[in-house]
Amino acid sequence: MKAACEKSQAVCTSLKKEKKTVAPPKLFDLTALQREANRLYGFTAKQTLDYAQALYEKRLLTYPRTDSKYITSDMQDSTKELITGLCSLLPFMRDVKLQADLTRVCDNSKVTDHHAILPTAEFLKTGFSSLTDSETKLMTLVCAKLLCAAAAPYEYEAVTAVISCGGYTFTAKGKTTLCEGWREIEKLSRAASEEQDEDAEPETVLPPLAEGQTFDNPAAEISECYTQPPKAYTEDTLLSAMENAGKEETPEDAERKGLGTTATRAGIIEKLISAGFAERKGKKLIPTKDGYNLAAILPDSLTSPQLTAEWGTRLTGIAKGSDSPADFMRGIEEMTAGLVKTYSAISEDKAKLFTPQREAIGTCPRCGAAVYEGKKNFYCSDRACSFVMWKNDRFFEQRKKAFTKAIAAALLKDGKVKIKGMYSTKTGKTFDGVVLLADTGGKYVNFRVEQNRK
């Protein structure tokens, strides 16, 4: 292919240009704020909630535990005043001409208990002066999101070129920006805060092209690419997955969808980590062995998002007076009794899934099997082998040294270990020495010292 293309003339056989528009983003609800703070700053969902709560208590931020990305019609005038104040307060906005349009984020029907997260009028008075670094970052995100939501759409021209060369057909795609709109504010905000969105895709800009245009002596290069496995969840992507879990299976009229609520999702994630079912590795959330095993043994009825949606809908009905609390609790009691009866015990195979994993500390010098640490000793895993080193061995007790896992591992690996500060019963002083594993194959393992007195 490479040789054929390099010897041929490249021809642009088709050129398609299409004008496209990207609407401004919605305002923040709590989940959206947690996702963006995790993606840009690595904040956990709980950290973001804690920082937002602290700002709320300082009267600089509106109520954070909201699930709405909208404001009500009676808030338009005060919100526009807020935007005017932010344009004066934020340095990156001083050269930006913003004609605020709140039409897209104003919807009374989409505001229930609380509207979207906004900075307050009090913040315009105090600014960032009293805030910590993390609070400043979060506050900047909220301010920038409000300004972006009120800005003009981002407009660009999408270009798709089809190139024929050497009997092969190639497609090139790019875009040309026509109007930055809200993206100008986003870029200025992130540059001012030195934010970097690692998930942002680089834009491809194609050179000027015309249909029928030819290219002589084209340079050709073959690159080999591989499909990638799905990435591990971050809190950003996990929060999105929780928000949309079971969306296709959940009834359209369900009051609540997904797993948890905006106010509880951070706590659910922290619970999984503290209980040992998941762990953090950088930004990634990785399931542990116990996490995999728990998912394997739980009945489907307890892992389905539909159960959460059903309960959420009924609780909303109770709050509105259209459902009976007694009937709801009776249903839960019956379901619980059925689960206990059906799953009162798990199979032996599934029980083995939760057997603690043992980590070998070395190899048995007698039979070559793995040696493990027990509560009182270090023992050979082969029951036919009698090799065992006791933690309360008189040799170490007389020298006032604990027989640790590190010492045992070194003896098994090298047959010796250097130990500092051993006590001498003859002199009453301490000394450094090399302890040797002097195993003779008998019932008890022996040790001896090649000491190096100071």
TrEMBL record:
Gene3D superfamilies to which the protein is assigned, alphabetical: Topoisomerase I, domain 2 (1.10.460.10), Topoisomerase I, domain 3 (2.70.20.10), Topoisomerase I, domain 4 (1.10.290.10)
InterPro entries the UniProt entry points to: Topo_IA, Topo_IA_AS, Topo_IA_cen, Topo_IA_cen_sub1, Topo_IA_cen_sub2, Topo_IA_cen_sub3, Topo_IA_core_domain, Topo_IA_DNA-bd_dom
Domain Topo IA-type catalytic as annotated: residue spans: 1-340
Annotated GO MF terms: DNA binding; DNA topoisomerase type I (single strand cut, ATP-independent) activity
Cited SMART domains: TOP1Ac
GO BP, one annotated term: DNA repair
GO cellular component term, pick one: cytoplasmic replication fork
Keywords: DNA-binding, Isomerase, Topoisomerase
PANTHER family: DNA TOPOISOMERASE 3-ALPHA, PROKARYOTIC DNA TOPOISOMERASE
Official protein name in the record: Topoisomerase IA
Biological source species: uncultured bacterium EB2
